[in-house]
Specification:
This protein is an alpha+beta fold and about 60 residues long. The protein contains three helices and three strands, in the order H-E-E-H-E-H.
């Protein structure tokens, strides 16, 4: 069997945690920030744990 290549686009956006979950960043924090409240922008800075329904897809992209 050939090796499975890592999807480099996904590798730049997601990291695997110690327990095997995937960590990523929030959407909507790159532009049009003037109309968003400071509270909302502060919350968007933090990382998120990716939902369980997307784990199967991410495990294929990041072996």
């Amino acid at each position: 069997m050939p090796k499975i290549k890592t999807h480099k686009g996904a590798a730049k956006r997601f990291k695997r945690t110690g327990s095997g979950k995937f960590k990523g960043s929030h959407a909507f924090h790159s532009h049009l920030l003037g109309k968003k409240t400071a509270k909302r922008k502060r919350r968007l800075r933090k990382s998120i744990i990716i939902s369980r329904v997307d784990h199967k897809r991410l495990e294929r992209l990041l072996p």
